[in-house]
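Structure Section — protein described below
Tokens — whole-number codes for backbone shape
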Amino acid sequence: MGSVKSALTIAGTDPSGGAGIQADLKTFQERQVYGMSVITSVVAQNTLGVQDVKHLSIDFIEKQMDAVLEDIFPQAIKTGMIATVEMMQLIATKIAKTNIPYVIDPVMVAKSGDSLMEDQSRKAIRDVLIPLATVVTPNVPEAEILVGFDIKNQQDAKKAAKVIVDDLGAQSAVVKGGHLPGEAVDILYDGNDYYYFKNVRFDTKHTHGTGCTFSAAITAELAKGKSIKEAVELGKAYITDAIKFSLELGQGNGPTNHWGYRLKGLPNQEGEIK
């Protein structure tokens, strides 16, 4: 089977399984990468929204990180919900010593609209974590917070990706187009070139955890040695299938289907080939 690659996610939890640590670990597994996790916050949430958040102590987060890094060293790391400045500073110190691909999903607002990050943390993420990033994967609202201007169209999204790389210091940025009108186009800028990942827009509310899942898929591919462009391309294909083959679970914004890619070309319950 060869050498198994591993990836580490550092994020908050989702007890309903659609987002956060749980979504990341499912995605790593489906992408054939051994998944590990460090929990920053324990979140009471489901498809209807966030009910409560409890942050773990800085000391305990550090102990979790050391436990992983001193034993099973990962080939890539991603961060999701990092709620406080102190957490960011600790994580940045650890990641800066690793010299491996690092993906940031700058989780600031839940799909339900609930804020998951303190205001000062939104500012700190730009200065503390983004300069270390191999890939940053903001959606439009998150990108607007990072760059400080409105994003109304693809030209604005291109400009935002360029600012995240050229001004904020990331190696590359993918500004996701799901919030913009028209076809869903994700724009990747790697410091030299722009790449466009287009897909049809699915009429579904079941998109809980899409950001976590997309960034985790990119992380898994980087852990396997793929280039940034290849990792984003494969991650986009994976999340597209995860949205297309909806599970239709929950009373609100339901989770994506982490094994959706396995259903390509198979007949649905009505006998139709999707």
Observations:
- The first strand starts at residue 6 and ends at 12.
